[in-house]
Hints:
Layout: H1 4-15, H2 20-27, H3 31-43, E1 47-50, E2 53-56, H4 58-71, H5 73-76, H6 79-90, H7 92-104, E3 105-108, E4 111-114, H8 120-140, H9 147-164, H10 169-172, H11 179-194
Antiparallel strand pairs: 1-2, 3-4
Protein name: MarR family transcriptional regulator
Amino acid sequence: xxxxxxxxxxxxxMKQLATAEELxxxxxxxxxxxxxxxxxxVADGAVMAARGKFMITPAGRxxxxxxxxxxxxxxxxxxxxxxxxxxxxxxxxxQVLKVTTDWQTVEVGGERVANDHSDADHxxxxxxxxxxxxxxLPAVLGPVEDPLVDRFVDRLxxxxxxxxSGETDYVSGVRVDSFHTVWFQMHEHLxxxxxxxxxx
Length: 200
């Protein structure tokens, strides 16, 4: 597990530009701890501050790149983890990308157009598919024993619950912790844990 300082830097790689409170929401750290670690990171040049938001610097990324192989060495050398990541990439990750497309667009006259969410039956089917993917996720990622992965699964469930209650932004909106946003963060976290590159 990353120490509080490195975890704060690590969380910034997933949020890009964020407040201390937003980072705490991702990592589960107390906001006061995140604020203290950000202060130290700004002082040593690992993080830049601008108008209450923070961004990791190349120096901060270098700190993480040096730490990951040490902290996650056992996980990276575990064949079960490698198999789990293969299954994740070829299975549920591709499914989420497809479902997100089907949420954002619909086929009309053989062409894809923006989904205006007037077809409740279509949207319900898409949400049901997301639910089935989420149900499979703990088993797929079971070998990746990491507390932050469990937190991501919980956040995905919270986003889906809000979407099912009619808050449509919580499927793929970029201004909220939508299913798609949290999934992207989780994917980035998994890649950094396992030392893999994002597939194009």
